[in-house]
Amino acid sequence: MMTTQTAKTGLNLRNPAFWQDNGTVVVLIAFIILATAVSGGVFIRPDNLITIAYQASIVGVLVLGQSLVVISGGLDLSMVGILILSAVIMGGAGSEQQSMMLLGGLPYIGLWPAIIAGFLTALLFGLLNGLMVTRLHIPAFIATLASTLLLGGIILLTTGGAPIYYPDPFFTHFGNSIWLGLPAPIYLFIAMTLITWWMLNRTRFGRKLYAIGANARASHYSGVAVNNVRLCVYMLSGLAAGVAGFMFLSRTGYIAAASGGDMLMTTIASLVVGGISLSGGFGGIKHAISGVLLLAALSNLMNILLISPYVQNAINGFVILIAVSVYSHIHHDRA
C-alpha cells in the first residue's frame, strides 16, 4: 500500500500513477546500467555494491523514521541531534575511560545499560517533539528546530566540545563484523526496513498514518486519534535516530558535536528524490529506500570518476531540483 487512494496501475507506462509509484525504482535501475557503463564495470562489482549499501545504511535508518513522520504530515529536524546525543551516551557512559573524560560528568554505567540509556534518550526526545506538536500545537518545523538547538546545547555541555574516541570495543567489533559476506550494519538496516514496511502496509497504524497525512481533519471526524498517532510517530522517529546513532558509533568508533554534517539534508533529499510527498499522505518504503540508494549510488559513481566534492554538491542539488519538478508535474497530471 503506497497511499490510501492509489489504485493498482499495472505496467501502463502512460499512466502518471505508474511513474508516481515506481518512477524512482525505474530511474535507479537505469542509473545502475548507466553507471556500470561509464565506470567500465567498476560500479557493478559486488564489493562496490556492498560499499554503497554500507554507506547508505545510517542515512537509510534516518530516512525510515523521517518517512513515517512525513507521511503523517509532519517533519522532524531533530533526528541528527538525537543521533549524536544517543551515541554520546552510549559511547561515553558505556566506557569508563570516556565517562571520566566528559566535562558533563556522565557516570560509567556499563555497556548495555549505556546502550539502553541511549535508546531511551532518543525515545524521550521523540516524545518531547510529539508533545510539542500534538499538545502545544507548535508547528512541527518550529518544534523540532527548537529540539535541535536544545540537543546541541546538551551535547556541548556533556562533552565540553571534545569528541569521543575509542568507545567500548563492542561497537567497532559490531561495525566491522562480516556476516555471510555483508557488514553487520547492513543487516540492521534491512531489519529496520522490513519492520517499517510491515508497520506501514500490514497494520491499522500504517493506514491511519496515510489517512492523517492526506486529511487530518477528516481522519479526526472519522474517529482516528490523530494526536496520539502523531505522538507515536515522533517517538518512532526518535527511536530510529537512536538506532542510527548506535550504527554511527559502531562504524566510525567516534562521535562529536559536529558529527552528522549534512546528514539531515541528505535524509530529506532522499525522501524528495524517492517521491515521498512532503505534504503528507503519499509514499512508502519503496520510495524511501529507492531515494536513499539512488543518492548513495550517485555519490559513489562521482567518487569513482574523481569528481570534485564542490561539483558533487552542485550535481546533487540539480538532481533534487529535477526530482521536485518531475513529481510536481506528475501530481498535476493526476489531479
Any overview of this molecule?
The protein is mostly helical and 335 residues long. The protein has a single domain (19-334), classed as ABC transporter involved in vitamin B12 uptake, BtuC. Helix content is 73%, strand content 2%. The chain has 14 helices and four strands. It has helices spanning 16-38, 46-71, 79-93, 96-101, 111-134, 140-159, 169-176, 184-202, 204-214, 216-221, 226-252, 263-274, 285-304, 309-334; strands at 164-165, 178-179, 182-183, 254-255. Strands 1-4 form a two-stranded antiparallel sheet. Helix 2 crosses helix 13 (285-304) and helix 5 (111-134) packs antiparallel against helix 11 (226-252). The longest helix has 27 residues, at 226-252. It is globular, with a radius of gyration of 20 Å. The two termini are 20 Å apart. Mean pLDDT is 89; it is low at 1-9.
